[in-house]
Design brief:
Chains A, B, C: Keywords: Signal. Chains A, B, C: This is Aldose 1-epimerase family protein. Chains A, B, C: InterPro entries: DUF4432, GH-type_carb-bd. Chains A, B, C: It holds the Pfam family DUF4432. The structure is a homotrimer. By secondary structure, chain A is mainly β. Chain A has a single domain, classed as Beta-galactosidase, Chain A, domain 5, CATH 2.70.98.10. Chain A has five helices and 27 strands. In chain A, strands 1-2-3-13-14-15-16-26-22-21-18 form an eleven-stranded antiparallel β-sheet, covered by helices on one side. In chain A, strands 10, 17, 19, 20, 23, 24, 25 and 27 form an eight-stranded mixed β-sheet that branches. A six-stranded antiparallel β-sheet of chain A has the order 4-5-6-7-8-9, with no helix packed on it. The longest helix of chain A has 15 residues. Chain A is globular. Chain A starts with a strand and ends in an 8-residue tail after the last strand. The relative contact order of chain A is 0.14. Chains in contact: A-B, A-C, B-C.
Amino acid sequence: MHKTLLAGAVIAMFSGQAAAQSWVLTDTQGTEKGDWRIDSRQLKLSGEPFTLEQQVLHGGKQEGSKVLTLTSKNGLTIALSPTRGMDLLHVNGHGVRLGWDSPVDEVVNPAYINLESRNGLGWLEGFNEMMVRCGFEWTGHPVTKDGRIYTLHGKAGNTPASKVEVIVDDQAPHEIRIRGLLKENTFKKARLETWTELRYVPGADSFTLHDVLTNQADYPHDYEIIYHSNFSTPILEENARFLAPVKSVSPFNDYAKKGLENWQTYGAPTKDFDEMVFNLQPIADSNGKTVAAVVNSKGDKGAAIEFDTRQLPVLTMWKNTDTLKQGYVTGIEPGTNYAYPVTIEKEQGRVKQLQPGQSAEFTLTYSLLKDASAVQKVEERIKTLQGETKINVEQTPIAVE
Amino acid sequence: MHKTLLAGAVIAMFSGQAAAQSWVLTDTQGTEKGDWRIDSRQLKLSGEPFTLEQQVLHGGKQEGSKVLTLTSKNGLTIALSPTRGMDLLHVNGHGVRLGWDSPVDEVVNPAYINLESRNGLGWLEGFNEMMVRCGFEWTGHPVTKDGRIYTLHGKAGNTPASKVEVIVDDQAPHEIRIRGLLKENTFKKARLETWTELRYVPGADSFTLHDVLTNQADYPHDYEIIYHSNFSTPILEENARFLAPVKSVSPFNDYAKKGLENWQTYGAPTKDFDEMVFNLQPIADSNGKTVAAVVNSKGDKGAAIEFDTRQLPVLTMWKNTDTLKQGYVTGIEPGTNYAYPVTIEKEQGRVKQLQPGQSAEFTLTYSLLKDASAVQKVEERIKTLQGETKINVEQTPIAVE
Amino acid sequence: MHKTLLAGAVIAMFSGQAAAQSWVLTDTQGTEKGDWRIDSRQLKLSGEPFTLEQQVLHGGKQEGSKVLTLTSKNGLTIALSPTRGMDLLHVNGHGVRLGWDSPVDEVVNPAYINLESRNGLGWLEGFNEMMVRCGFEWTGHPVTKDGRIYTLHGKAGNTPASKVEVIVDDQAPHEIRIRGLLKENTFKKARLETWTELRYVPGADSFTLHDVLTNQADYPHDYEIIYHSNFSTPILEENARFLAPVKSVSPFNDYAKKGLENWQTYGAPTKDFDEMVFNLQPIADSNGKTVAAVVNSKGDKGAAIEFDTRQLPVLTMWKNTDTLKQGYVTGIEPGTNYAYPVTIEKEQGRVKQLQPGQSAEFTLTYSLLKDASAVQKVEERIKTLQGETKINVEQTPIAVE
């Protein structure tokens, strides 16, 4: 049930006892808000103050790109872009930044990107997010099959959201939900629709992504998804550590073999390092839940991602500790897949499929670890999950591109 | 002669005794109207009331797309998109809809389409029109020749109109003309300009397209055009029929061979049907005129297209009676060509050419058949045109892609 | 040092004794001006009156393109497009036009261009400038290497400027500077940033381009640049002449061999002429400066480009004296390179490289030659530079594509 409370924007939704106000920022059926702003004071909500603000960017290749920023004074500031598939640009709180500095310093409007350029690497002309969804039609490194390029990491991250809405719970602690609908619809080829959702309680140090991918077609459709989550300074630094409970690790390719020995430790920005990628099989608890994290050298800052291995069975760790100007960054990438081309992933049986009308859900909780205590808590949980299991360090890549 | 009557928009044009008001909605030389509206009441015109309204769409990949809608209360409502080559989106009247439901449910701005993607099938990411011009540099299925992709169905349907104007006849019955200029101009490659025109008399059940393609270059230039006209429910249904006077029918490919027996009858939405395509040679009257139609099972609803075989000598019938969600639809496609790749069409001599400065005209009248009487009238005309001519049912495709 | 004088736009800059006002028209960090205008009267500046005006264009494929026009009543009118890489569209003064009439008659927004289309010739769908920067990642004819297309003339000319500012000197003669920042930034591939600058003193018949290209990456990066400068009527005509002091001329390909005999003289618009290209080695003075020009038959109109052979060692002369409708035009193209594909240029050692953080500067002065005296002056300078040096006319192209 929907009931309009105020002209234009505010709607109350009652589902059981829950009541909330909501704002439609974009709707292909009619609504479009450009620059827009609400805040807790104006809404007369008590508790942790927050602001939600949308801006339309201009200049360069970001002409027309929208950025929606959720600011919580004592918690996190989260910036995402509806124009770029609801990707998370960066998150800040307690002096810690989740995100990185890409040479791409604009929020590039997909209208200016040709994903097929550079032999399928056009995605790199817009890549600078803290979290970009790599999917859903396909993901992974580009490959040409039967004359067709499966471009790097798919199209979701460069798909403007067809619908964007913000929902604020009437009841304390006034959870905020930012929802966006991504359509990968092509006649005869795909009808994959994803409702992305970000949930945040003002003042908290964590937020949750809850995405629902539905195959709206009448035929089964393959899908792949990697949550490409990227962190740099001030967390990433010399002797920063990667933490995750894993059964096995294998090098993505020959170059990564050289980094196997200390794969869980990061180096300082290093010229000619380029990137090493490691394929991981995570260990989960009895509910399928696991967590991976990157923490700084001192162990008093970090980022953790909790995810569900029933939804996202594998984990890619991307060590791109090249120089700062090249984009010093590490990726923690829960996925249905590794980053091999879709042809290899298919061959090796990791590509999933949705039946007609079927949905897949993905729930990930991102935490900013603001101090030693927060880091320690995650580290202990990971230790517990690892338990007595020895990490099987495989020396040979499972595939060759 | 042009004379400004009112500031800004209204111009009187006198050509012989004809006088009309006109509005320029888009002109690369200066004018640009976004949201815009006129109606017969405001213009103080008697007779059938009408409204003309332009809207700029937002959200998803339709950001910035314009839709111009002509509404005639007792006749038709016609929606077209200047941003998408003056394509007709859908037409409605008397409870009948001309058009279909594509999985692509946005009016996709060509800025978000890469026609070369998917090995030349990028056009499918925007395809949902009731009528899309497939041409004019080339049309048909994609083919790569000398490293270059001739993309599916050419560029016209994804070319934003450079000039758009609306003209309303001063005299009853106040015929409305909507004109749009499409430029396929590329240095050293093409200078093909098309003035598209839609003519409609408020209250009528028919409208006419009158397009003039001109080769503005100093060299001869090949062209191809298919008027890809698409119909679904409530006309298309089990036992709906395709009607046209034809000399011959041949299957487009091996799969269509299986459908030759009952090629003129449609099935209900059928899983795994995919599409069958039939190449037809229409029979025309002494003036070159012919007509093709699709009518529902009961014979009381339909759509007919009258065209000129001197302009558009061949006819493609596209039977895409797959499930509703996949886009249950049939195409009636008068053209200079069949839908084979341009290389094959060229080889088989169907590709036309324009000399420098030469124009080609295309006139098609679309009728919404609202009742049994309207259907019967078209059916009788087709019967007459067919006369004693027996349909030559060829068993073998004339070409292999 | 920056100091705000007036709210919003006007800033005074003091560097030594120089003071100026400046306006930011575009800045990805926040500022965006659409339609905008200033003039010398409003600024209360004495001397030659001038106007600076920005317009946002609409319609066709120029939707959203910006054009910035500098008008000096007694000097030049210079139009450039921030959306198209600060390219110069056309320059007019004293009844002489620098520029040409391309079949592409819109200022095409790069959002509507796929540079990879037509097997790497997509650039031709937007080409109509008086001066377009061909670079900087690569330039020249397209070539596919390792599955990747190096598209015709690179991306700079189709890169919307990330920052645009206008600076007007406080002191007479109130030199105007129009600056634009182009970013060719792609993760792992390039971090080339170019500050383009156009300097013009109101009333003058010349303007200067001063571009600074910087490799912002931590690795060396190749670059190429050709200043593709194009002239037509009223300068180009039968018996118009190309003037430049050169050591040698060689035909670009076999077709150009046929034109070697009278390579410095132009024909009237000629059907089937297509294009001939000549590679030239310019002779410079002791400071590296040289000049090339095209002058009309009578020798009383022309265009000259002064450039620095230490920055731009080679010169391409493009003779495209086909018919008017095809784009009757000649290109005078100082560059680091000839127009061969980057693979050939690399092989033959003409591709330059920038070390991390290193910059390259390019300074070119364009002059409109308004009368016989202006033409004569340039001709004499060229004669002096040529001196006793005989032109080595090579018969064989130095490379085969």
